[in-house]
Amino acid sequence: MNRFMASYLRRIGIRLGFDRDWYLYLVAALIGLFMGIAAVLFIWPLRQSEFFADQLHDSPHLFWLILFGPSIGGLITGILIALLKHEGVGPGVTSVIYAVQRKKGQLSLKIGVRKWLASTATIASGGSAGAEGPIVTIGAVVGSNLSRLLGTGSQHTGTLLGCGAAAGLASVFNAPIAGIFFVMELLLRDFSLRTFTPIVIAAVVSSATTQGLLGDTALFEVGDNFFHEGLHFSITQIPVYLVLGLTCGLLGVLFVKTLDYTERAFVATKIPLIVRPFIGAIILGVIGITAYWVSNAQDIPNFYGNGYPNIKHLLDPATYFSNAETGDLHTAMPFISGLILLALVKLVATSVTVGSGGAGGLFAPSLLIGASCGGCIGYAVHSFGWFPDTSPAYFALVGMAALVAATTHAPLTAILIVYEVTQSYEVILPLMFAAVVGTIVSRFVSRDSVYTFKLSRLGVRLGAMSDLTILRRLTTQDVQLKTATVVYESDSAQKLLTLMEHTGTSDFVVTDSSGHYAGMVVSDDFREALVYRESIPLLQVSELTRHDLPTISLEETLDVILDKFSRSDVQSLVVLDESDSITGLLTRSRLMARYQKALDADVDQ
Predict the structure, then answer these.
(1) What is the 3-state secondary structure (H, E, C) of 472-516?
(2) How far apart, in whole angstroms, are the C-alpha atoms of residue 519 and residue 502?
(3) For a surface tag, which of 17, 20, 62, 289 has the fewest beta carbons within 10 Å of its beta carbon?
């Protein structure tokens, strides 16, 4: 039934002109509309859980909810992992990047369904994670599967996947520009016009749809008293924002390393995958109830959930003052200690939640950790009387961008997302400066971001140029293969000489007596043997065969194949199908010719 429906939709698509690029704009708009509605449905239960948490002040049931609430979400997540198994390689965004780089943008529908349900259960029950990662994954799954249904071809799958991801992020954060650049900077790494245009359409339509349904403006809208008259960024402030960028850069590395360590620790325990989220939730509950006892507060711990209410609190200038009218700050040590503790506990809580297998994003925790770090430095600056036109809240805002940039290694996305979720242009200059410094420091200390440390262990290397994007869009099937000249291991080397004289080839595929691939005789080795031509009749093919050469599958992308050529230093490699039968030879020259053709076509677009 599914095959019939897919075939039917492809025929309709061809009749409507779906074999040309312009239809992508229509499909992008439809994806944007769908994701706008989906985002509302996704956000609603999370907001209801926040409202419910606000009503629990001084509740007699608060102790038990703090202790066991996250466990409910962990249990549901474990059940969903057991029921909806898929081949994801890590947290949602990591799986999407892997699909773009290695699977031609193909994502299972199960990934989206599981991510939606599991992240709702995790975050609503108190798990320390954000909503942006799941909605990006859900949107990517929608775009990928829609591309498959419409039969658009692998060259457009990544674009439609990006449309869904950008639309989802634009809706959740009400930040269409950030959604666009998140996809292009982190997921696709492709800034070509053909990719950019449909993604813009999807993000704008999605954001407009969400605004129309919810009536929201900025996610963390600052008040009228946030900016003082005469506020401006000057060169004298650069050292302070440099310190903020350096601090957030190091804190971002700590976040990435802690998450990596926690995930590997859970794997090392050999606990079944479906049980790990529950164990992680129990640990979070213990941390939560400890904080409840120590602080003697009668509220849900502020590191539970996505942390949006606490971010709003840190962006309120009055938060830092015991008397805002006289400018009296709160007592230094308790206040600064509280912010430092919030940042560190949020870091650990998020690592435990996500590292154990809980579902959720890392943007929101990064924003809260960055706001706490910025608030500390801002408090110190204000207590020394520096820059009286500023406020600790400004530094909290800048810290948000600096830490997101440090954890993602995507400063452009970090700058835009913080700007859009607050709509505060007045601090855009320090925002850009601190974000870039945070990225530089983070990349200097650790080459992997919060989304790529697991990909690095899988051998996935991410480039940043459009030509690599083209190579990743093409597979073996896109290149015309050369017919393989096959010989047996037991044949005489004289046969190679005869075949070379008749066919002109000097690369030979060797099989065993059963006809299975055994290796290759490559041109360089055979030419060396020809130096002693009189010995050729005395040699067997097996004596010239190289058994260490990699083979190529029909589904491999050209960037992977090019890497194999570089490591092997040969001119031809064997292509095997799913049954390990010899399909042909892929030569380095034909690969480069196909790449050049695709590059020319991309430029023409």
Answers:
(1) HHCEHHHCCCECCCEEECCCEHHHHHHHHHHHCCCCEEEECCCCC
(2) 22
(3) 20
Tokens 């009296």 found at: 328
pLDDT digits (tens, 9 = 90+) for 93-107: 777 887 777 777 778
Residue 321 belongs to what H/E stretch? strand 321-323
> Strand pairing partners for 510?
487, 519
Q: Which residue has the tokens 């016009």?
A: 193
Confidence of residue 131 (pLDDT cuts 50, 70, 90): confident
- Kindly report the three-state secondary structure assignment for every residue of 290-354: HHHHHHCCCCCCCCCCCCHHHHHHHCCHHHHEEECCCCEECCHHHHHHHHHHHHHHHHHHHHHHH
Q: 82 and 278 in contact (C-beta within 8 Å)?
A: no
The helix/strand/coil state of 441 is helix
User: Closest by alpha carbon to 266, among 459, 132, 81, 69?
Assistant: 81
Can you give the C-alpha Rg of the chain in angstroms?
28
**145 and 280 inside one domain:** no
* Residue type, position 84, single letter: L
* Residue 475 φ/ψ, nearest 5 degrees: -125, 180
Instruction: Give the residue-averaged pLDDT of 150-171.
Output: 80
Q: What φ, ψ does residue 63 adopt, rounded to 5°?
A: -55, -50
Which amino acid, 333?
M
pTM, two decimals, is: 0.76
376 three-class SS: helix
The verdict on residue 159 lying in a domain is yes
Residue 230 within a domain: no
Q: Is 533 exposed, middle or buried (0-12, 13-18, 19+ CB in 10 A)?
A: exposed
What is the residue type of 115?
A: K
Task: Kindly report the average pLDDT of the chain as a whole number.
Answer: 82
Containing structural domain, residue 518: 472-604
The predicted pLDDT at position 605 comes to 45
- Residue 116 · residue 84 · CB < 8 Å: no
| DSSP assigned state of 330 | P
User: How far apart, in whole angstroms, are the C-alpha atoms of residue 284 and residue 290?
Assistant: 10
- State the alpha helices, DSSP H only, in 84-192: 92-102, 109-124, 132-150, 154-173, 176-182
Reduce the DSSP state of residue 355 to 3 states and report it.
helix
Is residue 52 included in any domain, yes or no? yes
- The residue-averaged pLDDT of 482-490 equals 88
How many helices (H) and strands (E) would you count in the chain?
24, 8
What's the pLDDT band for 465 if we cut at 50, 70, 90?
Answer: very low
Whether residue 121 sits in one domain with residue 35: yes
**What tens digit of pLDDT does each residue of 540-553 get?**
888 888 888 899 99
